[in-house]
Specification:
alpha+beta, about 325 residues
Length: about 325
């Protein structure tokens, strides 16, 4: 039928169908028939979008820098954005105006205002080093922007890719940094050499201390050995003294024993002498012949004959003639054998 069209949108588009100046239907990913003479269709993309930006700013020390970054956003309130900008599409889903391009431009304006405010407070070196701080401050500033809130947008992230000085200043900074790094390298070399010298000194000192400790230990060992030898000699001397004392005591005891033995033997001899004298006293006045006779008791005739011959011999000068028969001599000889 003439003027009736069919249109279909994907899920990443929020669609508002106006008919007769009033909203007939709205939502994401709609598809419907509509009568084109009295219908108006608004399609707002709700997927996230990002864009690059490059700003030239001046630091507080009057140095030009180039700020490069990226902003990612999405449309949080499509109806609020539709009331501010025109996202009307035709039957081919083409925008009748370029208002969708104004979103990026307005965000860029807010980002540039925020970056200028930040960079102007920093020196060149601070701007080159504080990328995270710059990034965070730009993000917070855009989020709180009235323009962004009025459009119903949500800023997902802001990334600052770099802050670059002009070429001449970059070369100067490179030279300065190179000199600084060279100084640090020289300082590191000096410190390393100094550390090596210090370590070598410590090693030598440790070796000397070790040698001193070894000598001290050896000295202690020698002294201990000498003390041990002295103690050993003292012990040996004490042992010898004890042995001599023991020997002296033993000898004294032997002497006392001998004295006692001598005294006892003397007493025993005196006693034996006394006994013998007492026994011999009765025989003291007797003649020996009598004693011989008594000792034989007349039992051995040969002894008596021998005694008779002895008397004959003693009185030989008084005997004129003496006859001894062979029988008598034979008897005497036989009796002795």
């Amino acid at each position: 039928m003439l003027g009736i069209n069919y249109i279909k949108f994907d899920s990443m588009n929020y669609v508002i169908h106006y008919q007769g100046g009033k909203i007939k239907k709205e939502g994401r990913g709609l598809s419907f028939f509509y009568f084109s003479p009295n219908s108006s269709i608004v399609s707002i993309p709700v997927q996230s979008n990002d864009f690059q930006f490059v700003f030239n700013e001046t630091t507080k020390d009057y140095q030009e820098v180039t700020l490069q970054g990226q902003v990612t956003y999405k449309i949080q309130n499509p109806k609020q954005l539709a009331e501010t900008l025109d996202f009307t599409v035709n039957k081919k889903k083409q925008y009748l105006k370029n208002d969708h391009e104004k979103i990026q431009q307005r965000i860029i304006n807010e980002a540039q205002t925020a970056s200028a405010s930040i960079i102007q407070r920093l020196s060149l070196k601070e701007a080159l080093r504080k990328l995270e701080d710059i990034e965070s401050e730009i993000f917070e500033s855009i989020q709180k922007s009235k323009t962004v809130q009025m459009l119903g947008l949500e800023i997902l992230s802001v990334n600052v890719l770099g802050v670059t000085p002009n070429p001449e200043m970059a070369r100067a900074l490179e030279a300065q940094m190179r000199e600084s790094l060279q100084k640090e390298a020289d300082q590191a070399i000096y410190e390393r050499r100094n550390f090596a010298v210090e370590q070598e000194r410590m090693i030598k000192e440790s070796e000397l201390n070790t040698e001193i400790a070894v000598e001290e230990k050896q000295k202690q060992i020698v002294e201990k050995k000498m003390e041990t030898d002295v103690v050993k000699q003292q012990n040996e001397q004490k042992l010898k003294e004890m042995e001599m004392t023991s020997n002296i005591t033993l000898e004294e005891q032997k002497k006392e024993l001998i004295d006692v033995q001598v005294t006892n033997e003397k007493k025993e001899a005196d006693m034996n002498e006394y006994v013998l004298n007492a026994r011999l006293k009765p025989y003291k006045e007797l003649d020996w012949k009598t004693l011989m006779a008594i000792s034989n008791n007349g039992n051995d005739p040969s002894n008596n004959i021998a005694l008779a011959f002895r008397e004959l011999a003693e009185n030989a000068d008084k005997i004129g003639n003496l006859n001894i028969s062979p029988e008598l001599l034979g008897a005497i000889v036989n009796s002795k054998s």
